[in-house]
């Protein structure tokens, strides 16, 4: 009977759970960060079209705050992942 395990290829670069999670997080960051940039551009459009209307300016300011918070969460997740990975790697015997 042939060995079927050797016929399947690993689509990910790594072989450990740590490398798999790092790859997934990298893909998520590469997908979400352009979305954050587009939201910031849209926020600029909201500021331009507000034309001094205080309610529209408040809406644009709120959108900008949430876009920045989203960017910080994305980058913070990646930094947190790197920090956890370095800690786990340093604990290995």
Key features of this structure:
93 residues; mainly alpha; 2 helices
Overview of the molecule:
This protein is an all-alpha fold and 93 residues long. The protein has one domain (16-87). 77% of the residues lie in helices and 0% in strands. It has helices spanning 17-50, 54-91. α1 (17-50) packs antiparallel against α2. The longest helix has 38 residues, at 54-91. The mean pLDDT is 86.
Low-confidence stretches: none
SS elements, strand count: 0
How would a textbook summarize the main sheet?
none
Radius of gyration, CA atoms, in whole angstroms: 21 Å
- Count the helices. How many? 2
Task: Describe, in short, the structure shown.
The chain is mainly α and 93 residues long. The protein has one domain. It contains two helices and no strands.
List the helices and strands and how they pair.
Blueprint: H1 17-50, H2 54-91
Helix pairs in contact: 1-2
């Amino acid at each position: 009977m042939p060995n079927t395990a050797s016929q399947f290829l690993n689509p990910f670069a790594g072989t450990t759970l740590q490398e798999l999670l790092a790859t997934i997080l990298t893909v998520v960051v590469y997908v979400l960060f352009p979305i954050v940039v587009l939201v910031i551009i849209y926020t600029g459009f909201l500021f331009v079209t507000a034309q001094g209307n205080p309610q529209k300016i408040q809406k644009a300011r709120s959108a900008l705050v949430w876009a920045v918070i989203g960017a910080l969460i994305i980058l913070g997740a990646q930094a947190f992942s790197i920090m956890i990975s370095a800690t786990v790697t340093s604990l290995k015997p």
